[in-house]
Design a protein that fits this description.
Bound molecules: glycyl-adenosine-5'-phosphate
Largest sheet: 7 strands, mixed
Radius of gyration: 27 Å
Structural class: alpha+beta
CATH superfamily of the largest domain: Bira Bifunctional Protein, Domain 2
Number of strands: 26
Shape: globular
Number of helices: 15
Strand content: 25-35%
């Protein structure tokens, strides 16, 4: 229980820090907010941009076999008919007849905990993402008497967790919020609808894209004809996607408006297994390389019965968030399903001609599909650290430090004059300008005690802080402080740029 409580507290502390320091705000907060929508503040927007830039740099700019694309959010609705989203992008949902709350059927669980004599210790209906989180949630909801029973009988308990849609017909599942009666499940399409043009009739219905992938498939021929790429090759896109999620939850994790970073990597059918494995491993490694510790990061291969009907293989990169283990990115072998579907629906040729083998065929596609906001949330969770450091008088003070990987840290270096006089601000501003000129995100701060300025940068996750002091004026050296080790060393003022560049690379 202690670990669960700690994790809950961690999420609360993290969201409080994100609001206080300008990483993430609730959308339209001044009007009470809107469920499932979030805004990124001054630090958050830099963090998110750095994540997107790192991805773009690694999968597009540094490769010869992938090109980029930026498609419109609203497309011809026939795209979504052909892709199967109009007919099949549904979640089954139930409504509470009493409190009117709405739930995804597969996210409502009945948890029963029994002792060794089969006596029921706890029955709870909870809303959660998976069985494990449902069990945790049910245990959390228990009163203190039941918790004592857990503690006394911990090895002799049997736990049953059932999804609402796994219950038999005569088992009734009440509302997890108020205990009221739930309606029969109904299908709920997740696409946001709008109208294009002046008239609001069925002919003008359009959808906000629920994934960026379909824009890539619809442009497959355009890219092929204009780029002269040969198989295997990929098309990458970063952009907004919208899903009218029944129950947005877990901070930004499940939102109604979010960003995706997707690659559609086209290859020959007989090479698809090889490329699937390549991308699955490469994408997993990418998160490790950007600071997600291996033990919290997992790669889960889907069982055959979990696969979508068009997919031949699929794996999820998962992260252990404080609220449970959840998906950051999915890597799937989607076969030739999508291009075939668009060829049939549009009547346009989607084949590739291999001029060596003289064959014409529709390529297979491997799709690494990640969520930008989920990656950002994982990086935020991983970075959040509380530790202790000595203050000016040597007394230990606790601090919060965001230990971002330098490549994604919103600010790379902060420059401070120790005091606002004796020529120090002028020198500090010069160093700040030199850092900026070198393309480093630099922050200048001359307000408040130096210890407080350091702590503010620790919360922002700034890897290095440079301080100009009395000695700088005498010998042109500055102190440079490392965020994680807290070590301070003196270096020549003229070496600051190269020092920072080397340390963050
Ligand atoms: N083109 C395939 C596709 O869209 P998906 O698993 O539905 O697959 C891919 O979505 C990724 O998009 C997920 O792994 C997740 O990171 C992100 N994502 C999906 N729904 C999301 C939501 N409601 N909020 C935030 N991110 C979401």
């Amino acid at each position: 229980m202690a670990a669960e409580n700690k994790d809950n507290t961690l999420m609360e502390k993290l969201s409080a820090l994100c609001k206080r320091r300008g990483f993430i705000f609730q959308s339209s907060e001044i009007y009470g907010g809107i469920n499932g929508f979030w805004d990124y503040g001054p630090l958050g927007v830099e963090l998110k941009r750095n994540v997107k830039n790192a991805w773009w740099e690694d999968v597009v700019r540094r490769r010869d076999d992938i090109v980029g694309l930026d498609c419109s959010i609203i497309m011809n609705p026939k795209v979504w008919e052909a892709s199967g989203h109009v007919g099949g992008f549904n979640d089954p949902m139930v409504d509470c007849k009493e409190c009117k709350a709405r739930f995804r059927v597969d996210k409502v669980f009945t948890v029963v905990i029994r002792d060794k004599n089969d006596g029921i210790i706890l029955t709870a209906v909870v809303e959660a993402d998976d069985e494990q989180s449902a069990l945790q949630e049910a245990r959390r909801s228990a009163n203190s008497k039941t918790r004592r029973k857990f503690a006394n009988t911990k090895d002799d308990l049997s736990e049953t967790v059932l999804r609402t849609d796994e219950l038999s017909k005569d088992e009734v599942c009440p509302c997890p919020k108020c205990g009221g009666e739930l309606t029969e499940p109904r299908q709920f399409n997740l696409m946001f609808k709008s109208h294009a043009g002046a008239s609001e009739d069925s002919a003008s219905v359009v959808y906000l894209r629920p994934e960026t992938a379909q824009g890539i498939f619809a442009n497959f021929k355009n890219v092929l004809d204009t780029s002269r790429l040969k198989l295997p090759f990929g098309i990458a896109q970063i952009g907004k996607a919208f899903r009218n999620e029944i129950n947005p939850r877990n901070y930004t994790f499940r939102s109604r408006e979010f960003e995706q970073m997707e690659i559609e990597f086209f290859c020959r059918a007989d090479e698809a297994d090889k490329w699937y494995e390549y991308w699955r491993d490469a994408r997993f490694q990418w998160y490790i390389d950007h600071g997600l510790k291996s033990e919290k990061l997992r790669l889960r291969n889907h069982e055959t019965d979990e696969l979508a009907h068009y997919a031949r293989a699929c794996a999820d990169v998962e992260y252990e968030f404080p609220f449970g283990v959840s998906e950051l990115e999915g890597i799937a072998n989607r076969t030739d399903y999508d291009l075939k579907a668009h060829q049939e629906a549009s009547g346009r040729d989607m084949t590739y001609f291999d001029d060596e083998t003289r064959e014409r065929f529709i390529p297979y596609v491997i799709e690494p599909s990640g969520g930008v906001d989920r990656a950002v949330l994982a990086f935020l969770c991983e970075a959040y650290t509380e530790d202790e450091q000595p203050d000016d008088k040597g007394k230990m003070q606790s601090r919060v430090v965001m230990k971002f990987h330098p490549r994604i840290a919103p600010i790379k270096v902060a420059v401070f004059p120790l005091v606002k006089k004796e020529g120090m601000p002028e020198v500090a501003r010069k160093i700040h300008a030199a850092c900026r000129d070198a393309g480093l995100a630099s922050f200048y701060d001359e307000k408040g005690a130096i210890g407080r300025r350091y702590r503010r940068q620790d919360e922002a996750g700034t890897p290095l802080c440079v301080t100009v002091d009395g000695q700088t004026i005498e010998d042109d050296t500055v102190t440079i402080r490392d965020r994680d080790s807290l070590l301070q060393q003196r270096i020549a003022a003229g070496d600051v740029v190269s020092f920072v560049q080397e340390r963050i690379s």
